[in-house]
Amino acid sequence: MKRLIDGFLEKTESVVSLSGKRVLEIGCGEGGRSVKIAERCLELVAIEPDPAHILVAKEHHLRPNISYELGRAESLQFGDEAFDIAFFTLSLHHVPREEMKRALQEAARVTKRGGFVLCLEPAQEGSFFEGELLFGAGDGDERIAKAKAYLTLLEESSSLGLMEVAELFDETIFALESTQDFSQVMHPKKNLDRLESFLEKEKFKLNAWRRLNIYKKR
Length: 218
Fold this sequence. Notes:
Blueprint: E1 2-6, H1 8-13, E2 22-26, H2 34-38, E3 43-48, H3 51-60, E4 66-70, E5 83-89, H4 100-110, E6 111-122, H5 127-135, H6 143-156, E7 162-175, H7 179-186, H8 195-201, E8 205-217
Parallel strand pairs: 2-3, 2-5, 3-4, 5-6
Antiparallel strand pairs: 1-7, 6-8, 7-8
């Protein structure tokens, strides 16, 4: 599975420049997005709670200005105002629901005054999302977690000293080589007899909408 189109950084930089900035990426996964962010900023510290993902990131997605570290969003091991930008990359909805406010609070704490807290989250539209639901694939049904993450942003950001600057949307398009490609990456668990016809109908291209919320720290 390959990303054909993924313009979240262009959308980000239409509002906030990463150039010359020290950036914290919260929830870097295996580093696929990290290298793209690092190409645009001065320094990137990328944290992830899964040790296996950190190992993959260090092996396949290293750059001189990236530091990969184990860490959790709800208990950041950095000093106050240590970064110009804190960036949740498809990760806030993975934080335990009762800890989402704390994660946002921590991101605000480590961001400088006048800096930015960015939150890229999966929306609930697109054939990629439909495939997750229909086949129990990928991370499965995350509708409640996604809704809670968005609600946390809407309800808690102002009380944490964060002023909303923009809400933008971006479309990611994935290309698949075959049904087997989908299965190897997404690990479908149900309705497998319908998988091939679904992918053929979509011409082996799946789209996923993302929402980008940008906040400035007062």
